[in-house]
Amino acid sequence: MTQPLRIAMIGAGFMGAAHSQGWRVAPRFFDLPRTPEMSILVGRDTARTQQCADTWGWGESATDWREVIDRPDVDVVDIVTPGDTHAEIAIAALEAGKHVLCEKPLANTVDEARRMADAAATAAANGIRSMVGFTYRRLPATTFARDLIAAGRLGEIRQVRAEYLQDWLSDAEAPLTWRLQKDRAGSGALGDIGAHAVDITEFMTGQRLTRVAGVLETIIAERPVLATSSGLSGSAGAERGAVTVDDLALFTGRLESGALASFEASRFRLGRKNGLRVEIAGSLGSLSFDLESPNELHYYDATLPDTEQGFRRILVTEPGHPYAGSWWPTGHMLGYEHGFSHQAKDFVEAIAAGADPRPSFADGLHVQEVLDAVVRSSDADGVWTGVESATSVASVDRVLAAS
Ligand code: SOE
Q1: Where are the beta strands (DSSP E) in 259-320?
Q2: Fold for domain 4-136?
């Protein structure tokens, strides 16, 4: 029997269901050094939270997160609430000595993210670990792409194109949920899905963005207001309210090496449902990934004779591919939910090993700084804008990696 790791999860929405699945399944497929125990689910509404706890497999439910993070029988706090609450909960949990997993984007503002990264650094000195939930890093295909690039198989990185395309807001009558309100969500497509595109680019290339130039657009300015006061769910009435975030973000960035990357985050690309696509071209080859076909990585090897060149579809389900060996026989596919199990596995392993996992809160802060630079660039009509402290964070990482 391994020592249990008792988890309290704050938040009971879509991400709550996804994280629950990750915690529940990870110990059944991976041989973990400590067993995650789904102890307490915290939500706002007593009856609904208990119902979610029963459905998802949590031991008990509660409505006061402050009380829960102070409980001695809680080791890990998993935060899956809207962005405006991340900083307060994460800092309090770290100060209470709990390991913290926080959904992306880390916060709604750079200031909040910086305070969170500072709290994480202080806690790390006392053996408390923290991590941000950029789960798409943890798919076999994306991790394998990172490994190929790190091994030099693409040569010098020359160009990146990263886009995250959805269409669920194309309907002008879709209601004004919290994701469309700046005070709750921080930003729109930029923070919700553009953050993934930024993180996956930096993860795969091993480089950070140093400058950006971009434009943000709100395509539908007003939407039907939800009947509930929270704006989280409920039916929409005749009243309309202002959308205060972007619907579409287009930007260009420069990586540390000087290579250019182009980004698009849209919830208006009709027909594209959850298309996180990344294409990276180097001097020796290219890689292409599309989340709508998550088990495939397309690899173009320019070192082959001209007559044999062409994109090769690699089915990333071999036992030798990252994470894949613990699941099904070759060719039996993984999907969206598996990233959450891999996230749970990696976090538990880091805690047990006494190691700081990635993406760290410092990584999350850096992504927040990129998003903030895009907003500042857009406000200034698209001028090139420096990503605050990119160099200092990058050099801190290099020091950590070397130690
Ligand atoms: C939004 O639609 C969303 O659920 C994001 O919030 C998630 O991070 C992304 O994985 C899928 O899309």
Answers
A1: 260-266, 275-282, 285-290, 296-301, 312-315
A2: Rossmann fold (3.40.50)
